[in-house]
Design a protein that fits this description.
The chain has 9 helices and 18 strands. It is of the alpha+beta class. Helix 2 packs across helix 4 and helix 7 runs parallel beside helix 9. The chain binds adenosine-5'-diphosphate (ADP) and magnesium ion. The site of magnesium ion has 3 residues, from helix 3. This is Dna topoisomerase.
């Protein structure tokens, strides 16, 4: 009975989500950190009003009265103040994780300047209260898998983890794919492309797909550790160890139910974007400069996609960057997207935060059509045809 109740709740969730549209924008302001070097009397430059999900960014004149020179207000689907911890964030994200398990293509992005809390949000640290969205999502997946298995569904989960660095794809899990369990390094000549399969699904060629037991927390941790070791980390003047690349963690899920003759597939992409800061602030030269330009180019390709969708343009330029090409199903009417905007509370970040917020308002204007579930009935003859039923479906025909 508990499980049936849970399924009913899921169906309601999906219904509400469909009514609210498939692009969601959340904003999160991080607390002050010791490295911000602000004194005890410092005020946040962004005021969040959580009860109506709005925020205001303020530019003050620096006087003791704190006269406001300029202010801008924004409203998003959710606005989280600095006090909102990892569990509060995840509670508002878990419905997206669930959608992937219900057979949708889902993408969560973390966007913001270096040091604003993107990696903290996505990955967090440790296995305690500071863990981020990726480990929490895997726990949720594990619980759901158990529940559905009890109802005759067979779930298969694999993960891939890539990095896009200067428009080149690197496989962060390559060492796990070797038969001797990690000693071998991928030959440097392996290149990865993005292709479309016969069903219109995008995939990365020759990428390691690691079979995951989501009920084994150590398996998830091992994957994160291996990926962390492979990530490109560079030094900029803004943050000593800032990531200069996008990373995309993908859970590929397939499920089938013999009795109901149904098959289901879904994808959850958890994408930690490179820092969105403008060139002038990072004092970049040489290789760093080239990097920053490549990063800015691919982030502007992402912006271009959202602008085209918001303006309902017939042509959306997905092909202009690896990131948008790979994630185009989530960024089109077929899927669901959550843009998590990360903001630093410091006054020095006023301009970067304003740019981030303007990007977010652009995304907020996007409306995608009804998302498409990848659920098929399998006929006696093995042929498959689309159906609206299955676990968590809004309209069950089964
Ligand atoms: P980014 O990935 O955007 O460059 P990070 O996630 O690495 O930024 O965050 C920069 C620093 O701030 C890290 O030391 C991180 O632990 C800390 N931090 C970020 N967000 C929070 C938060 N909400 N609460 C506590 N510390 C945070
Ligand atoms: Mg980071």
């Amino acid at each position: 009975a508990v499980q049936e109740g849970e399924l009913q709740r899921r169906k309601m969730h999906n219904l509400i989500q469909e009514l609210r549209g498939n692009v969601r924008v959340y904003a999160r302001v991080r607390p002050f950190l010791p490295s911000d070097q602000v004194d005890a009397s410092a005020q946040h430059c962004i005021n969040v009003s959580a009860h109506d999900d709005s925020l205001a960014i303020l530019k003050k004149d620096g006087s003791s009265d704190g006269n406001v020179l300029e202010s801008h207000g924004f409203t998003f689907d959710r606005c989280f103040p600095p006090s909102a911890g990892q569990e509060v964030i995840f509670a508002e994200v878990s419905e997206f994780v669930q959608s992937a398990l219900d057979g949708y293509n889902v993408c969560l992005f973390s966007y913001g300047q270096t040091g604003s809390g993107k990696t903290h949000t996505m990955q967090g640290f440790g296995s305690g209260p500071m863990k981020g969205i990726i480990p929490r999502a895997m726990e949720q997946v594990g619980r759901y898998k158990k529940m559905l298995e009890a109802q005759g569904w067979v779930y298969e989960m694999e993960v891939s983890f890539i990095e896009i660095y200067q428009e080149q794809i690197r496989d962060l899990l390559r060492s796990l794919a070797t038969p001797n369990g990690g000693a071998g390094e991928e030959s440097t000549s392996t290149t990865h492309d993005i292709k479309k399969d016969g069903k219109g699904n995008m995939f990365v060629t020759d990428v390691a797909m690691i079979l995951l037991d989501p009920n084994d927390p150590q398996a998830v941790q091992r994957i994160m550790d291996v990926a962390g070791r492979h990530r490109s980390v560079g030094a900029t003047s803004m943050n000593e160890r800032s990531s200069r690349s996008h990373s995309v963690f993908t859970l590929h899920m397939r499920a089938s139910n013999k009795e109901r003759r149904s098959q289901l597939s879904g994808k959850l992409n958890l994408c930690d974007l490179a820092g969105s800061e403008r060139l002038s602030r990072s004092n970049a030269t040489g290789e760093r400069l080239k990097e920053t330009q490549a990063i800015n180019k691919s982030l502007s390709a992402l912006t271009d996609v959202f602008v085209a969708i918001a303006n309902k343009q017939a042509h959306v330029p997905y092909r202009n960057s690896k990131l948008t090409y790979l994630l185009q199903q989530c960024l089109s009417g077929d899927g669901k997207t959550l843009m998590m905007i990360n903001l630093s509370p410091t006054e020095q970040s006023y301009f970067e935060s304003l740019c981030t917020l303007r990007f977010a308002s652009q995304v907020n204007k996007c409306e995608l059509g009804q998302a498409r579930r990848n659920l098929h009935m399998v006929g006696q003859d093995g042929s498959s045809f689309a159906s609206a039923g299955g676990p968590g479906a809004t309209t069950s025909t089964l």
